[in-house]
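thread: overnight batch results

M.L. [08:02]
morning all. the overnight job finished for the chain we discussed friday. pasting input first so we're all looking at the same thing
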Amino acid sequence: MYDLEEQKIVEEIKKIKAKRILIQLPEGLKKEANRLVGYIEKNTNAKLFISGESCWGGCDLPLEEAKKIKADLIVHFGHAPFFNPNFPALYIETKYKTDITKLAESSLEYLKNFDNIGLVSSVQHIHQLDNVKIILENNNKKVIIPEAKGRAFYKGHILGCEYSGSKLMEKNVDCFLVLGNKFHSMGLALSVDKKVIVIDPINEEIHDLDSDKKKITLRRLKLIEKAREANIFGIIVGMKSGQQNFSVAENIKNKLLKNGREAYILTMNNVTNDQLINFYNIEIFVNTSCPRISIEDIDRFEKPVITYTELLIALDELKFDRDKNNIIIAPYGVK
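M.L. [08:03]
and the structure it wrote out:
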């Protein structure tokens, strides 16, 4: 059901005369690797390599792998461009090819008490935004699609860490409707003070995220309280190609030192509990890598792992409204 744009890949390889190609697929699409390699090698003179490493987003390009095998092109599947990698890269967004008209019509029951709808999507369904907008407007809803802001590549585009456009127009809508999955939608729910409804075309489901959001927020607040009392902090800098936020880490360290705390900067390619527990003197870790690691992997960590925003709340530099129940998720950006 995904459009892997094989012909586009072949045309790009021929255009730039690439000879050694590294293809990178997210976990759910790795099963397509052998078919893709067969098709591309049959239709070009290029030699293909498959990255066997995990792929978590457009921020996670395998630049070092590509350099080691002397590749002259990376073909990355599943995401839109996230940053300028200074290396030839072709992003294949893997649009999901299905008619979601019935799901969109079913969502009207969830939206019956709302007039102004913020409409957004993950990249797999971005091509369906206009169709859903028409359905909503034909049922007397006013629909606003946010502009592309921050790391968003398209109008109405949200990522697991990027909701800047939605936050800028939050006051103009009564709720948000997301085309995507719970991962992208929960990030939005944690970033705004509005109800978030998700249409999941792949699983053919519709969800109201209020209950899940409250559970997550309560758990995050407990970690913030632990951070208020902690004295020794480890600041994690991710070594993945689009997550190297050294300036943010230095800023965090300076804030902690000014507050009379100890702070140490740690570099990691993958943030796992096995790595963190070795630093047994550190009480709290502040993650400047993908902010969703702190949220989704909470049960895997034996020690608290918080985001930059949560640290600011713990240091009383940012106010948290318990009635609104929103923890801001935002990418730190790579300059």
